[in-house]
């Protein structure tokens, strides 16, 4: 199980342009965490994944590419959740998966957030929802996850306008 989700989540973001030093630093932290995760050195992986999550949170509203910003935040949460599962801390992993899902739902519905960020957050709720379902299949149900899965996205979908 180790590294399965990690490789999946990061693979698509390795080729991102290096013009944004924050994204470069986030990628470096993530890739270092992945190496330690794959080697079974969980304490070291934890340090790198926490740093990557901190960077993603700090830059969430500021990256020029909203989709990239949301993806980085999701990847950081999912990598850390995978690590917590590997460290036999599934309750903490479940909390983290719920947190990112709730964060994206709130962002997608917040009038204070720019439209591209809201749209990107809504798109990425599909992956956070999928992760919640996968967690339940592998580790059983938990109240927090049941609450997250019970939320309906239908009210968050943008209405189609007729012109």
From TrEMBL:
InterPro entries: TPR-like_helical_dom_sf (IPR011990). This is TPR domain protein. It comes from Aeromonas salmonicida. The lineage of its organism: Bacteria, Pseudomonadati, Pseudomonadota, Gammaproteobacteria, Aeromonadales.
